[in-house]
Amino acid sequence: MMDKTVLVLGATGGIGGEMARQLLAAGWQVRALRRGDTPSPRGDGIEWLRGDALSRADVLAAAKGCAVIVHAVNPPGYRHWGRLVLPMLDNTVAAAMAEGATIVLPGTVYNFGPDAFPAPHGLLAEDAPQRPRTRKGAIRVEMEARLERASMQDARVLIVRAGDFFGPRAGNNWFSQGLVKPRQSVRSVLYPGAPGVGHQWSYLPDVARTMVQLLDVRATLPAFARFHMAGHWDRDGRQMTGAIARVVEQATGTAPAIRRFPWWLVVLASPFVATLREMREMRYLWRIPLPMDNTQLLAVLGQEAHTPLDEAVRATLEGMGNLNVTGKKNAPGLPAH
Question: Does the predicted model carry a pTM greater than 0.70?
Answer without folding.
Answer: yes
